[in-house]
Amino acid sequence: MNPTRRVFLTLPALLAAALLCGCGEEVEPISEEAELTPEQAGVVTKGFSWELVGPEAGLPAEGLVSIALTPEGLWAAGGGRLYRRSDGRFLPVEDPALPIPLNRIAFSDGVLWALGRGAAYSSDMGHRWTAAALPPRDGGWTCHGAASLDNEAYIATDEGLLSAKGFDPARPVSFTRLEPLMGKDSGYRTVSDVTMTKGSVWAVSPDKRGYLAQYLRDKGEWIIRASYDPFRRVAASGDYVWVATDGLGIWRSTNGGESFNEVMNGGAWDRVRGIGLGKGSIWAASEGGAIYYVYATNVWEHHGVQEGLVDPVMLDCAYDEAANTVYFATASGLAVGTKEGPAPAPPETGERRPDEELE
Question: Closest Cα partner for 334 from 350, 356, 316?
């Protein structure tokens, strides 16, 4: 059983009211559109440098679709295969447990995930892989995202969300499918991403009837925070939740997901493909270029072709904040951005500060 409580049924692109289904309790609007002011959206390029890495370093000619950073190095997915960086070059990874084709690589709570036509995970940074035991299904499963924490794991698939209790990344584990998060009448939807914190599991669906769902781990209850909008990726740390959307910009919450700001930039910048979290800043991959945000200054920086990017259509990102280096997957290869100076300091508290309200 996975009880679902719907908090929000429909969400236009602008401000909308939300009702708590089943009990009539009014809640605060889930999202408020926030057009960036010139000061907040200024492009600050001083101290940045960009480099494009491609086949000369061992990457596939088709480019990359996904990347992930672990304590032991960088991993990439492209051309249906997995690559790891070693001594400045990318080497293809061969293992019978890996899915074929492979289109996503993710790192969660010390576990490296390889996703595609199936799923595999590694507890030792890719030295050994274990194929996830997924439920029987004609045609198999296409897996888009995965997350694990403590003894739980979730896999986002083309037909719903899979979960495993008692998850141990060092051995084979069986996954089961949860009931449809929007209710049985709505059927199973594609789930494009999932992430976990100590208190919550977040899952998103990418189609026009998509949803943003939160699982309250202490209550054992799913809440639909928003629906009928296309959500692509989700990342969370403490009370901060970041959601990448297809056309609605970046959604940001500083109160654990109770409300969100839609940070709108216009055009291709609002089609966001991935989010890389740091303690004091984030990077986002969009179809208009790279987006950088620093908590302390509340300033958003935009980087496109005129700032040195060869291919502005970003498909995924991974962020090494300590090294002030960000990596983007593009169809032209790996875009690497480096910033001079110290890493941004984390915010003093996870609670919303007055100066964080966007006008």
Answer: 316
Q: Which residues pair with 283 in a beta bridge?
A: 276, 292
Averaged pLDDT, groups of 10, the chain, 359 residues long: 40 32 38 50 66 97 97 96 97 97 97 98 96 97 97 97 96 96 89 96 92 94 93 95 95 94 88 96 96 91 90 97 97 96 79 37
Cα 45 to Cα 302, 310, 332, 337, 344: the distances in Å are: 9, 15, 22, 11, 16
Asked if 134 and 177 count as a contact pair (C-beta separation under 8 A), the reply is no
- Sheet of 281-286, strands arranged across: 272-277, 281-286, 289-294, 299-303
Tokens of 64: 């990359």
According to the model, what pLDDT value does residue 138 have? 95
At residue 156, the pLDDT reads 98
Across the beta sheet with 152-157, the strand order is 143-149, 152-157, 160-165, 176-177
* Model pTM above 0.90: no
Q: State how far Cα 232 lies from the chain centre.
A: 7
Closest C-alpha to 314, from 252, 263, 271: 271
Task: Please list, in sequence order, all residues whose beta carbon lies within 8 angstroms of the beta carbon of residue 188, skipping any fewer than 6 positions away.
Answer: 159, 160, 177, 180
